[in-house]
Prior knowledge:
This protein has a domain at 654-739. 75% of the residues lie in helices and 3% in strands. It has 24 helices and 5 strands. It has helices at 2-29, 34-124, 130-146, 151-161, 165-194, 198-208, 212-226, 228-239, 244-256, 259-288, 291-302, 305-361, 365-458, 463-500, 505-511, 532-539, 543-559, 562-571, 574-577, 587-603, 615-620, 629-637, 663-674, 725-729; strands at residues 678-684, 704-709, 712-714, 723-724, 738-739. Strands 4-3-2-1-5 form a 5-stranded antiparallel beta sheet. Helix 5 (165-194) runs parallel beside helix 14, helix 8 packs antiparallel against helix 9 (244-256) and helix 11 (291-302) runs antiparallel to helix 12 (305-361).
Amino acid sequence: VAAREARDAATSAATHARNAGKAAREAAEQAGNSAQAAARSTQHANAATEAADDATAAVAKAQQIYKLSREVESAELLARTNAGIERARDDKEHDDTRTAAQTALEKEATDQRTERDLLVAQAAGAGADLGAVARQGRALAVRVMKKGGTAWGRAAAEAALGGTDETVLDYLRTGWQTAEEQDQRAYVARLAEESESKTVRDAAEQALDGDAATVAAFVDKGQYQVAAEDMRVAIAQTLDGAGPVLTDAGRKALNTGDPKQYSAFLTRTQDTARTQDERVRAAQLIDGGTPEVKAAARIALEGSPQALHAFIVAGQYQALRRDHLTATHVAQVQKMIADAGKVAATARKDAATAQQVAATARKAKDDAKDWATKANTAYGDAQAYAKQADQYAKDAEASAAKAAASAKTARDAANRADASAADAARSAADATLSSEVAQASASEASYYADQAWKSAVEAGKDSDAALKALNDAYQVALKKYEQEEKARRKAAVQAKEKAKNDPGARAREMYRCGQGYIPCDPQGFARWCQHKETYCDVLAHSKELSDAADTLWNLEKELLGLGQYEECMQNKDFDSCKGLAVDVLLSGKLKLLDRLYDKVKVLKKGCRILDKAPLRSASSVRPASVRPASAGLAAASGGVPCGEHKVPGLPRPTSKIPDSSDCRACAERIRESLGGGELKVIRPMRPFNSLPQYRGQDTFWGEHVVLVYNGRVYDGFGPKGGETISEFKGKWQYNDVIDFGF
């Protein structure tokens, strides 16, 4: 603003100077009226001098304001830096806490295993107090439940806590080991599905076909051996362009020739070594970087290793871009001030020339000589300002070019980092979902085993026979689970390979509406990430637009879920990662997890799950020896099927459909009986005003209310056990003109 005011004042001074010069020329031409013309010339010259002085003062004011604004910007950068350092320290503290908690969990797992071995040894001793051992075993099971036990380990501990002393002792002697074997099998199953290496996936699948010893051997050595070459390649890629500490650590790992050391480097050592290199690089940027880069480096050094890495791979380039944009803006302002100074100096020269002419007209030779000197001085000032303006213009152009180049560098670095973060977080989400699926499946298997034990006890069998029934039921559940998982893994791997071989998969993934990256929105988000080149060209010319674009970038990161990527990768828990499971390759696993959770919840109510065919009917027509595993498991749980409501008077005859009007009340009573579910309102699509025939009867209904619970649909006319959604929709004559809402 001050620069523009200086320029306007200088322009006004130039106008007055031109008027003074015109009057002076008139004085010289009209010798007969020389006195009158000289007076008029002097008047215009004085006005020109006054205007030139105003312009010069405005330029001085602009220079003062510019200097002050630069001081304010420096103070503001310092304040932002200090605030950023405080936030970085908080982040570092949070990261240290998380790391310490992970270390504590690992130590707790070792301590638990040691205590279990001691208790087993005590129980095997002559004259052992088995009651005391069982009490200590219960306390240990509680610790396993509360402090980081594995999926199958927690399920085994939970089952033991609900049993007798004999159950607890069996848990210590065999259940613990069985759970460990299942955890190992679950880990290998994850490799068979999630590993990027086909060699590893195939070897893992082969190991899963073997017994517990085969799986354990694969976990201990086999997985490293089959992945050795892939890991060597990965290490070589990691060392490309790496710092000295990381390079040295990678070479040492390669020189061992030990695949386990390769794995240790890739999973742990490289992070520590890279952080050391990155701390050195950040310190170098503090010493020799531009202001924004220095500030960002100071903040990064105070933060967590993840924050430091983000600064090195992308943040430093974004900070450098801000410095280049600031330099562009500064050069433009300085050019404006220099231009105003040039105009003001020219105005002073013209005013002095006018004063010289006026003095000559007045016959004042000394004054004329003095004004001539001032005119020459002002001319020199104008030349100097012109030279400054030219240099500032060149500086602005150069800074703009650097800003454009740094914007592209920053964008490319950010894109690489974001793609890496997306891949890493997707892997974390996949692994987390696998862990949760294993937990739910383990709970289900333990439930069936516990029910088998209770049934044996109620039948009057001794403890040994009851424990045998428990273990047999557990093994049946495991076999069923493994068969289902193998089929699901095969389909998941095929889908992943298909997506990997599709060159357009990444693009569709990033811009797939409603799939977690960019949500469907009635207004349509500005997907400017597809047009970054245009934006980056604009960025080079305006700090204000730069700030706006930074806001847009933050919005884009939010839309892409990158903040959630970071949280998922750091915490690796279900709450942090579940939002990423909308990815097309993870959604199937998430749906499986939902079904398993629902199943476990209803099982723990003391009832069994309804299948499409009533399980009691299936088990009643065949002897136990030839019943399907699923039927045997469900029968072991006993009780009324969970999906059957107990509402008196329902279901009603279908002949009552045309006269009925209390469907909502029926649905609410069914929900109360089942203990859950969601009411859904079924309506005809436009232009229809009423629903079509239902179960062969005219309805005359404008709407119909049903209950949806555990994937089944209930109303006053369907069976007590409800119907699957597809079965229910099949009861309507024209279901393609109905808005079911589910």
